[in-house]
Amino acid sequence: MRSRSSGSWSRRVLLLFFLPALATVLTGLTTLAVSGNLLLPFERVTVLKGKMASKRDFFEDEEVRRILMRHGIQVHITTSGSREVALRDLDTFDFVFPSGQPAGDLITGMRGTSDQYAKVHRPFVSPIVLATYREYAETLRDAGIATPLPSGGENRPLYYSLDMGKFLGVIDGAKRWNDLGIQRHGIANANRIVAQSPDVCGSNSAGTYLALVSFTRRGNGPDVPSTDEDASSRALSVKHLMEQGLPAADVFRTYVSPEGKGIAPVVVAYEHQYLTHQVRHRAESGRLDEERVLLYPSSQFVTQPQFIALNDKGERLRQLMADDPDLRRRATELGFRILNPAGEVAGDHLSKFLTERNVPVPALEGDNTRSPMPRIRYLERMISIIGDCPPAPLPDGAP
């Protein structure tokens, strides 16, 4: 019998090990080519350092990361409350992204007094809402405090309008959920009725909620405080209506957790957080999360995040945020209401997206892009009183 040559055996062994490795390489190259990232390993990637609060959700999104990587940009995030973003040293950062206009105004004002780089882009907005659970919303409905909005849900409403005056009235009266008859909806809760917000000293959502509470309880006065004394008086008059506790980053995560209902049944949140949750829940389970619902305050306060470039590297990302259609599309998919260059909501992109994903569209009334926020110096005074924290060092000539 003819023996097998050693050379033939070596070639067979080589192919046995080489072919799987070659297949892996070719698969990886194909994936990179399809995603448009084939040349990225050979291109220079610029790492940008940013500081932000709740809007980190945008930059932590995998699709956003892929879009930025196609432009050779990688973002490293430091998480901090929006007000803390404005009050801390920013020299080591390329951009900041506070969640609302007050913190943004603080940053641009302070940098403007020393001729430091600061260029602003307002990419999108998201209303302040109160996120709760169906039993609590229906209890408020029984008491004439909440009313279902017509957009509804598949079987039961997802969105309610909340009469803020009546809601603050039951908080002021130290009413408890059992007092309103929540037992009729299958649960009992002897705790006081409150809306849990993050720490007002660090969070934009808590500061905005404070402005909403103050606006609602203004009595016969103007919409917003007009003097330091007025700001102090209003803060003292509503301090007992504010409930703070969970860190800003944990409030919504707690709300969507299985333990959320027992920890904080009503929380201050952003609309986009809830809409994103519903889209994901629908995609993963094939149905809506009808246990969790939204309360839209009768007086709408819309937060306006400000992307602020602090140097030329940050400016490159600012321009992408303004002009890149993929980033703008992804912002819509994450529940934000996109703004046009004039600062107005750009069409009905969010409504179309939600409809395509079989998620009910919130049917809100009126203009949801404007809100009577106090001037920054008066809001800062109110925050310092409510949160027992030092007032921000406002720049000379601050509004």
Brief rundown of the structure:
By secondary structure, the chain is an alpha/beta fold. It contains 16 helices and 14 strands.
Helix content: 40-55%
Specify the structural class: alpha/beta
Write the CATH fold name of the largest domain. D-Maltodextrin-Binding Protein, domain 2
How many beta strands in the DSSP annotation?
A: 14
Q: In terms of per-residue confidence, which ranges show pLDDT below 50 for 5 or more consecutive residues?
A: 31-36
- Straight-line N-to-C gap: 99 Å
Note the total helix count.
16
Quickly count the domains.
Answer: 2
Largest sheet: 7 strands, mixed
Order of helices and strands: HEHHEHEHEEHEEHEHHEHHEHEEEHHEHH
- The CATH class name of the largest domain reads Alpha Beta
- Mean model confidence by pLDDT: 83
Oligomeric state of shown chains: single chain
Named CATH architecture of the largest domain:
3-Layer(aba) Sandwich
